[in-house]
Design goal:
elongated; four-stranded mixed beta sheet; 30% helix; alpha/beta; seven-stranded mixed beta sheet; single chain; 24% strand
């Protein structure tokens, strides 16, 4: 039995991921598995169960086996609506559970003591809510919510027009538990292709992202970018951003499934002045290995 009250986990995946070019960020691949799978591994053992807050067609998450709970307030008013949906779902389907922990679907490195520390901080501060922080940065979407406040939250969303998590949670009473940011921020979140590359470096090294200045002599930094399922021009745009973020001599491995990438990516490499070391096809997948030569950002 966990040393804290039964808590249900909700993975927030209701956003539109505009900075990633659209799609579902939790289904991006990192370290050989999806961000969602990484979250399930870390958050699942801490919780009474997990649900996924997502809108539109739930079948795209069918392979996860997780209950998909859409927003119960129309108009996509933001992550607070996802929290409300999880609180209301818990009250109906898990009536013995009094707490919900929310975690964004793009934070694959959450600590394995997240729920226990938030409960401990909440109890010590005698506050109804508790959120996580790393360094001086508070993460209001990584928060412990009492199911009992679901009607209060619905009123705030539908009648008061509240949208910011910070505004509502601070008004009710919020404690904060802080984690260190070394060797990496456990609440690192992925909003852009560049941040996905940085996250891959964290996975590979178990520490901060690789920089050209701290790469050991004689060692070539290799970054992997999996763009499977994306249609051109997205693979080209994301490959461009990744290449411009690398240092001279670094290498980038890019995997695509759109046949047009077989023409467009090599053209991009020539345009940027970089070197295409290898292009190979395995079934429907095309993999490019590129050496960074041209200018960086």
């Amino acid at each position: 039995m966990a040393p804290y009250p039964a808590t249900l986990g909700v993975i927030l995946a209701g956003g539109l991921a505009r900075r990633m070019g659209g799609g579902d960020k939790p289904l991006l691949t990192l370290g050989g598995q999806t961000l969602l799978a990484s979250l399930e591994e870390r958050l699942g053992p801490q919780c009474e169960g997990l649900v996924l807050n997502a809108n539109d067609d739930p079948l795209r998450f069918a392979e996860t086996g997780l209950p998909v709970v859409p927003d119960s307030v129309p108009g996509r008013p933001g992550p607070l609506a996802g929290v409300l949906a999880a609180l209301e779902w818990t009250a109906v389907h898990r009536p013995f559970v009094e707490w919900v922990i929310s975690v964004p679907g793009d934070t694959p490195f959450i600590p394995e003591d997240l729920v226990s520390r938030l409960h401990a901080e909440r109890e010590a501060a005698r506050q109804p809510l508790a959120c996580a922080a790393s360094g001086s940065h508070e993460h209001y979407a990584i928060c412990l919510w009492p199911v009992a406040l679901r009607q209060d939250l619905r009123h705030a969303l539908t009648l008061e027009g509240v949208r910011r998590m910070e505004d509502w949670s601070r008004k009710r009473g919020l404690a904060t538990a802080t984690w260190a940011t070394e060797p990496f921020d456990p609440f690192f979140n992925i909003n852009t292709p560049e941040e996905l590359i940085a996250a891959q470096s964290i996975v590979e090294r178990g520490s901060l992202p690789v920089r050209a200045t701290d790469t050991p002599a004689g060692r070539i930094a290799m970054t992997e970018l999996d763009l499977s399922g994306l249609k051109c021009p997205l693979p080209v745009l994301r490959t461009r951003k990744a290449l411009l973020s690398l240092g001279p001599g670094d290498r980038l491995s890019v995997t695509c499934t759109d046949p047009l990438a077989g023409i467009d990516v090599p053209n991009l490499v020539r345009e940027l002045g970089d070197t295409l070391l290898e292009q190979r096809q395995d079934g429907t997948s095309i993999t490019f290995v590129i050496a960074k030569v041209g200018p960086t950002t």
